[in-house]
Amino acid sequence: MPHPDVRLATDPDGRPRLIQYFSLCGVWAVTPYDACDLRCSYCITFSQGRSTPRLTTGVAATLQRELAALPRDATLAVGGLVDAYPSVEDELGVTRKVLQALVDSGRRVIVITKGPCVVRDTDLLLKGAMRVCMSLSTLDDEALQSIEPHVALPSERMAAVETLCAAGVDVTLQAQPWIPGVTDAESIISWANGRFPVSFTPLNVDSPGVARTQLGRQLNQHDINRAYLTERARLAGRAKVIWHKPLWVGTARRDKPSHPGRRATDTERRNLAAVGRYLDAFGEQAQFEALIGFISPYARLQDTTGHAGDRAFPQSGRAYDLLYALYDVFDSPAMQITLLQASGDAVDLHLEVRGVHARPLFDIPAGGHEACVPLAFRYVFDSRGLVLDYTQWADLDALYAGSHGASPDMRGQQVSREQPQPASGHRNTL
Ligand code: SF4
Fold first, then answer.
1. Higher local confidence (pLDDT), 378 or 51
2. Which residue minimizes the CA distance to atom 8 of ligand 1?
3. Is residue 169 located within the same domain as residue 300?
4. What pLDDT, on the 0 to 100 scale, is given for residue 326?
5. pLDDT score at 325
6. Does the beta carbon of 108 sit less than 6 angstroms from any atom of ligand 1?
7. Which atom of ligand 1 is nearest the CA belonging to 79?
8. Is residue 293 part of a domain?
9. Domain count within the chain
10. Do 376 and 227 fall within a single domain?
11. Of 113, 222, 227, 324, which is most buried, counting CB atoms within 10 Å of its CB?
């Protein structure tokens, strides 16, 4: 059963849609074939199978209709869900029809493939705003055949890239997935020699499809990411080389505690570690401290309400060591983390604060309200760094409606070491 994100879309009448949003990768995927006969062992899109065209007639009209509903500046990825050039494309030419229609629409298009057949469409690729992303994890024939037994050899794909480049097509070599012990990053970079961009992304073995494979059983995401970061550091500074972020993904939602104040379970600690590793991977200790600086007022509330004594936070150490320490503080009757997870560029932190509350939270007057208040924070990494994307105080507002004014609107505020600080002037102990 495919992941809901990668199930091919149909319109309300049950006819195949050629374009759908692929949220796992954040692109509009254009899918000419209903399955991929290249059958890579690490495929995350659940799309392997016999490739048959989704539409054989009316391709241009269908695309025109679907494109009309999309933002004008949307980037379209042909091959985002199913390779743009499965083996049968040579004979059937459905992808060519799709490319022709996209060229006519003037849209920005990425063509993602492992198929040398892409060279056939050089004329179209030169007409529009098109880029070809050729996937190639290693230049080693034997190593590649063990994971991509039905795909063209490295030498054939390298020849295709050379031909496209020589013709003036915009090409990127997608050396992904980067697989420890398989991907020879240095050889790939040397071959590219700055003539076209090379991008690396580590293998995702957390994907349910991959977890069941031999690779998924042999490797774990933590070790892959560590090896990837080491390789990235070793080969840093090479021209036109992009190292995408490692895939630190904590996915499981924390169960409700069976009773307040219990210790974290192993699963919860693993989830927390996943979030910490995610933050750690950015190497942004200062930003991580900013995050802690933001939530530390709540830690102080916990102290104030007497449910926990003073805690010594580590003065240094890796981000996830600090998160562990925070976890211990929060996991108490006064304050509990109900969700802490990282996904893509976002980190979600949900807390429940119990006890006597007042606004601001860290300034508790006598005779305050006894309540349990859920708080939700979302942090995202964008060009400014770690940013507080939104925070949800709805229940707190309701609790104090009419007597204490509106809650602070912190949407989009940058989280930094300086802000926000609690009204009492308390600074955290980091
Ligand atoms: S070429 Fe892409 S879509 Fe096809 S099986 Fe391989 S990874 Fe999956």
1. 51
2. 43
3. no
4. 47
5. 46
6. no
7. 3
8. yes
9. 2
10. no
11. 113
